[in-house]
Amino acid sequence: MKFIAITFARTAERAKFDFLFLAEGLRLREQGGHIYDLDVVGRPDTFTVLAALAAVTEHLGLTGTINSTFNEPYEVARQFASLDHLSGGRSAWNVVTSWDAFTGENFRRGGFLPQDERYSRAKEFLATAGELFDSWHGDEIIADQETGTFLRDAKAGAFVHTGQHFDIHGQFNVPRSPQGRPVVFQAGDSEEGREFAASSADAIFSRYATLNDGQAFYTDVKRRLAKYGRRPDQLLILPAAAFALADTDAEAEELAREVRRQQVSGATALKHLEFVWNRDLSAYDPEGPLPDIDPDVGDDHISQGRAQVRMYRDPIATAREWRELAAANKWSIRDLVINTGNRQNFVGSPATLATTINDFVQADASDGFILVPHITPTGLDEFADKVVPLLQERGVFRTEYEGTTLRDHLGLAHPDEVRAERAAS
């Protein structure tokens, strides 16, 4: 694991990418009461991994997914402030919520919160952490010449917060970090998620892979910023993007097909179908037709801890749509999952990928992309060697890092500058 993470991070930095992103799961997912077989390697602690990567990189941003439902502001703020110091101002926080009691069983408080309360807690969590980050702001540092230590005013780090979800007071024990606060990412696509991003985030993920859908999402989220006194350039739209790269477009298309077939085995296809049917489908032939029975729409779900379950809000309608697609295209269960599941956003030669990526950005469908290679740790190598130079030749991607912090890389202002701008307006 150490070799994989270091190799991946160093390749990203060699390509002059903005940041490396780590997802996180607080519990191993289950299917039918058994651990999902693709999860057996687990999810190591985010801060430990990012701290280790800070030691072997100099410029690359370090983004970690940290949950706001089952953590507390003081400990998370302390960890991010420490990481920001350790990395020289390269930390970022992907703020997420947990939606199910299954995950909550790992925690003392347990249970889960309704969606409106999850976002209410997340927003207050982030605001409270911001108060902690800012609690050292503006205090004088005084050097003690005799002992070589540094002293601050006794009020440095003092904080008091009283709200719906948190009632805390004390003294934050990590001084102001290079970025002031970590860069904040948000991943929600719901109405609440988009508002949360518009009010509080520096970047939001997008799941929209087509140009038209990407433009619609981009326009919707950016237009929300004005009511919070923010400019469009103060929130970045960053879709996740898988890719298949080869010397020619035809070879890339063939590679994309082969990758998808390797990613979706027969067993994986049946597991995916169970997300919608909410039934044990292990007796079905993945190379055969879809089940003729309807999904079970009960509250108890066969799949636990998977975000995909929430994507299918109307299982009956989804099953009907999939049956029609399978019949029209003569698809088996496996064929259907291959053709309707996550697919490569960009497929083609280096020139095709460079053109398509730039077209999306120029057409206001995104401000950039979070690349998701289909293999690690070497999945970024070919992109770094063949596509990045073409983007650099076009003048649309950096040839060298021009700042020291992640905010510099992303073109985001320091929080103090944002505050001063708002105060002056």
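[next item in queue]
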Amino acid sequence: MNAAAITDPERLWSAQEVLMRPSPVPAAAGVYGWHFKEAPHADLAVGSLLYVGIAPRHMANRTSTQNLRKRVRYHYRGNAAGSTLRLTLGCLLGLELRRVGSGKRMTFGRAGEAALSQWMAENARVCWIEQNEPWTMESELISQLDLPLNLDQNRHNTFHDRLKELRAQARQRARELPISA
């Protein structure tokens, strides 16, 4: 496992670089790591790796069709319904989560998602490593590193319960509010 490519990368990529065409992010399987210039919460370290993710996601009976390029680009410009990283960051930054559409999906609404994208453009930097079976490396990284924004497989992290509670509170508030247009 070459964890240094994620924990101490030679290069970190900005939203502007990742979203340009052609994108520097490979359309391949792999692991990505998110580093932040400004921490999204006062209890988190500035300038450090806080989250790792993978593409494709490995499930019991199939593998998703995602790749590094699709996943990383989505995190930078998507919404909280399709990105657990965006959901987490928005909750930590105090954005209001709302039910949208039929009421089953939750996002931060147009303004909130735009504010989150702007915050990420200013503060979030990403790196990646191509890996044929990224789920193996993800598990190793989560078990060995302090990755406070990862919830899955990360109950041992000191920030886990606080983050889980913040996200649960945001979802509960969203359920109590009317569906947003």
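[queue empty]
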